[in-house]
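Good morning C.,

I know you're traveling, so I'll keep this short. The sequence:
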Amino acid sequence: MRRFAIIGHRAQSSGKLPLSDLASGAGRMDVLIRALMASLMTSHGFRKDSEIILHLWGGPGPKRRLKIVGNEVTGLHAEERSIAGQIAKVLREPVPPIGSWTKRSSGIYDSGGSIQETIREWGDSTIVALDANAERLWSDNANIPMESNPHSFELIDEEELTVTGIDIGFILSDDQTLNLDDYDGIIRRSIGQTWLQGHMAIAICHFLIDEGVSLNL
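The tokens, ready to paste straight into the viewer:
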């Protein structure tokens, strides 16, 4: 499974979401929505082996987490305002207790909590915090294969879905620094010296896993 935790330090966590002002009034919710689209969507569908947790920390009220599960979600369209409308419905609801996931619609779950709850829930997954100043995510001798040999992929047998391969989680923050020094076992890796926008970084992570590039984990 491929997991992505996106931190929105200013992202609105409750109340009426201003659909016409996602960049400013909603605390850069537009950035999180683009990250969501890059995490879950391909040209013609959803990645069934991917899920994302949006961390909404901008208030009002307690921090909120939204989890979108690729093999369950329906009704999302590759358009920012449409996705914002789905999020807006959730933000009108009370924030659930920390650690308790409430299903809001098909494949969309709602919970309280911060990054520590997400790290705990990811269990034995390899967790990578993207950091432009760290070692590269790919190995020294890595190359791009001429034929795709993905590290993670989905198998559908008689309509039953099975995800096989790597179990990895990526943590990406917005333009504010996220301190992860107190968490053991997190690997810091870079996808280049240039600080890319979150949705671009996610696309590169997918590309490396899709093609089977040797990873430095």
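Safe travels,
E.
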